[in-house]
Amino acid sequence: MKWYKIKSKWLLILILFLVILLISVVYKMQNAKVIEAYVEIPQNSSVKSVAKILKEKGIIKNPYLFMLYVKAKKCRLAAGNYRLSSSMSYKELCEALQKGVVFKKTVRFTIPEGFTCVQIAEKLSSLGIVDRERFLNEINNCNFDFQFKYPSKNVKYKLEGFLYPDTYEVFEGESEKDIIKRMLNRFVDVYNSIKNSKTTQLSDIQTIILASIVEKEAKKDFERPLIAGVFINRLNQGMRLESCATVEYILPVHKEVLSLSDVRIKSPYNTYLYNGLPPSAICNPGRKSLLAALNPQKTDYLFFVARKDGTHVFSKTFEEHINAQKEIEEGEK
């Protein structure tokens, strides 16, 4: 009788082992496509509700098999926020959920090249990531250990030009200051990796300001170094830059074509009225515009005018420039 009981006990253990093995095999077969997700397990959740949540998130395929495994292994699942993957075995899932390894949820966002500080603040605010006013206030409080600073105090936003356009992943609830710090650090990493290509006499700050103008003026990548070269020529000859983009920066709303009154606005950003570069960048330039400002194309051109397709006609003399404008205007009629 005792021998029968011992055999029955080992038989049950063997069956249980085979069931668990079968569950694991089926699980892995069903999860060929890896899915990663943040999973929130509420307080006092039952095994059934946890299995349902994991199924909905795509972490498991069969909630009943998962429930059977949890009960067989007597796993205690803890509430919290977890980052889980469908490639994890039931054993790994249970270990993660038992240990209470909690991950904060993250949010991804992309800042396009050429966005201003205001545009960045508005985009992040619309996504619920930051408070617009707090974000802009942090920019102008400039309470950061940051190597680049504009010499003039007469700037719109102290960190304009340094919030590097890229894709970021931040924690939910992360402060405006911490998000700005990430963008500043990214700028430093990128700029330091390419600054040795500089061929001009411009300082780093002047280079960044020029890059921001190139970012706004250029629509085609291949023209960026050429446009930078035109502005360098004008600076070297003491000519005003006369960049429409610098005037656009001080206008309350975007205009496709500037009026005569616009180019007469008295502002240090108005390069139609004042010589040299504006006191700060006029947007946040990307890598290609930074490279163009660091290493402009050598050219004799002093003028350029935009075609409808975004390319430009470049001219050496004012007379050629006027003729190019007329030809473009006639061709667009």
Automatic annotation (TrEMBL):
UniProt keyword Iron present: no
UniProt xrefs under InterPro entries: MLTG-like
Site (Important for catalytic activity): residue numbering on this chain: 217
Family: Belongs to the transglycosylase MltG family.
Alphabetical keyword list: Cell membrane, Cell wall biogenesis/degradation, Lyase, Membrane, Transmembrane, Transmembrane helix
EC number(s) recorded for this UniProt protein: 4.2.2.29
Species of origin: Caldicellulosiruptor morganii
Stated role: Functions as a peptidoglycan terminase that cleaves nascent peptidoglycan strands endolytically to terminate their elongation.
Protein name: Endolytic murein transglycosylase
Gene that this sequence comes from: mltG
One Pfam family linked to the record: YceG
Reactions catalysed, as given in the entry: a peptidoglycan chain = a peptidoglycan chain with N-acetyl-1,6-anhydromuramyl-[peptide] at the reducing end + a peptidoglycan chain with N-acetylglucosamine at the non-reducing end
